[in-house]
Structures
1.
Amino acid sequence: MPVNFVISTASPAQVKTDLLVIPMYSDHIFGPGADAVDVALDGGLSAFMEQAVFGGKVGEKLVVPTSDALGASSIVLIGLGKREEVTADGLRRAGAVAAKAAHEAVSMSTTLASAGPTDLDVAEASQAVVEGVLLGRYEYLDYKSDPKPSKLKRVSLLGRSAALRRGMDRGISVGTAVIWARDIVNTPGRDLSPAAFARAAQRLLRGKNVKVEVLDVPGLKRERLGGIIGVGMGSEQPPCLVKMTYAPAKSNATLALVGKGVTFDSGGLSLKPADGMEEMKTDEAGAAAVIAAMSVLKDFGVKTKVIAFTPMVENMPSGSAMRPGDVLTFRNGKTAEVRNTDAEGRLILADALALAAEAKPDAIIDLATLTGACMVALGDKIAGLMTNDNSWGEQVRTAADAVGEPVWPLPLPKEYKKLIYSEIADIRNTSTSRYGGEITAGLFLEEFVDGIPWVHLDIAGPSRTSSEDGYNCPGASGFGVRTLVELASRFRRPNRK
Ligand code: BES
Ligand code: ZN
Ligand code: ZN
């Protein structure tokens, strides 16, 4: 059930709503709207805060009893910490707290979007709040026999600027896209075959100014995409590749997106142990983020041309599966010895990156749940960033930081290249060393980008959340969608070497 967002100029004390959400700063400093509420309650708000020892620190929440003096049936105060330290991500988190508090309320009104420091753009603030509300309200209930979804249907942002509305519209667009990605990634493997995933992409992108082409197995063979064919061979569900093109009039730069779309990763003949396989229905998070981001470009009026390639496969063991020791030939003619069929992500990305590079874009970014090693290095909240072009890497990092999706650079040292030399093919898909597995995976991918500025984000950690955390709930997070939208919106050609 979708939520309806509106801008309302009603006063916080009078607005007719089930739940009024008012922000507060540290040391009992009132946030926007609190004065009006306090006056209507004859000073009752200050007194109640005092009594309840509510200070307004980040994460604090307080339900305040109302009387007939207010239009709202109940009030919740949300602590934001020091005003000058409030960030867009802090507002996004507060939006999620508000949405969770409103689980049983049909309507909610809030001044949160005006609670940022003076130098935070109002549009950015309202976008963050709306994203937070949508993502905080999200629950994956498709397989519950008696689902009890949030009752929240109507959210009023209290205020009166055009920027508030602009941010709201953007927040709806991005939040809806992230939810789409989460739904895809949460879908059990049996119910999301590569073909079903491709169809879902086609449905999502209808009317979004994105041309969608799907290559089936004969198409993959014709285009010599030996990596995608090789990995897909073990499954009864045939692989495919989705190519997307967003081509606005008068664009003067091209950005290419690539995403790993493994709908289920059993490991193949190099079968994963049971506990390593439990979460592997989420191995298409990179492709889901790419497709979701494509759906937002039109709404944002993005001026850059954006092309995207998402290879979709199921990695299964069977009599027709690729074997350890097999050699695959990729789109760009390079060959790789498959040492371990569980290192399948790089095999399908190799073809997709080569296709992207052929189109000669100004820059490439790929997102992939690629290695457990990256989670060992950076934990499960931070994505690993590897690049062949530091200025492009910086651009990606700035975008990711701006939208609250943390990434951290890892090197691609030339001296590690020898770890992926093969005795019989050009390269091998696993390293000869036990260490630095995320780096050797990155070095493998670099072989396919033809020197074009490229960033690889290993999102194995942050694509899933294990426990409730801000606007993320257990399961898929939709990580990467916001970064990609931000990147495409502000794209600058990286400095050519
Ligand atoms: N999909 C996995 C990586 C992964 C692991 C994602 C844990 C999310 C959580 C990937 O295909 C994989 O299996 N990688 C192997 C590579 C190894 C065989 C070189 C890994 O990381 O163990
Ligand atoms: Zn794998
Ligand atoms: Zn995988």
2.
Amino acid sequence: MRIVFMGPPGAGKGTQARRLSERTGMKHLSTGDILRAEVAAESELGLLAKSFMERGDYVPDSHIIAMIQKHIDDPAGVLLDGFPRTVMQAESLDQSLQAVGLSIDKVIHFTLNTDELVKRLSSRAICSSCQLPYNLISNAPVNKGVCDKCGGRVLVRDDDKPDAINNRMNVYETQTAPVLDYYRLRGVVEEIAATGSPDSVFQVLTQTIRLG
Ligand code: AMP
């Protein structure tokens, strides 16, 4: 099965994809996590991606497509989190899948109002090592700044700072909302309200994809 997780920044795609991957064994492919690892490793791609990411802009399509290509036919199934984010990425993904006789089975669209999204992003932090997300108000690490799971440093992302948050919301509306229309035309989109706790959203998610 190949599932795409969509929704604005802060809707909880990463948290839900991580959980679903643990439950099902499907491969969790987060382009944001891959790019952050490249930035930390100061690789060629990381150095190129860094300034786009800090501003909240998208990294150019060609780099993202090349990065994701080799994973899309994983036999365990794939959860795409943060990809595709432009119509060009969606078209390219379709071509690559068609070439190996596969397609996107479902697109899950997580929805949340803008005030709540901004509130969540402003209190979000992430482990710089294993990428586990935290909410500094409702789900802070037990020891300040230290990841409960791996002991890595828990930091606020540069793109979760106010200027970048605004830009990310705008970029989502102009570049990613059309991707939803692209998938809606195929009738594969399921809407999930991302209000409520991660547990309650996960319950709806498993029912929606008929695991629960
Ligand atoms: P995320 O962790 O999914 O919020 O992604 C963080 C940042 O990585 C985004 O704001 C973009 O700068 C970059 N990024 C992640 N996925 C993509 C993508 N599919 N296309 C372009 N840029 C991306």
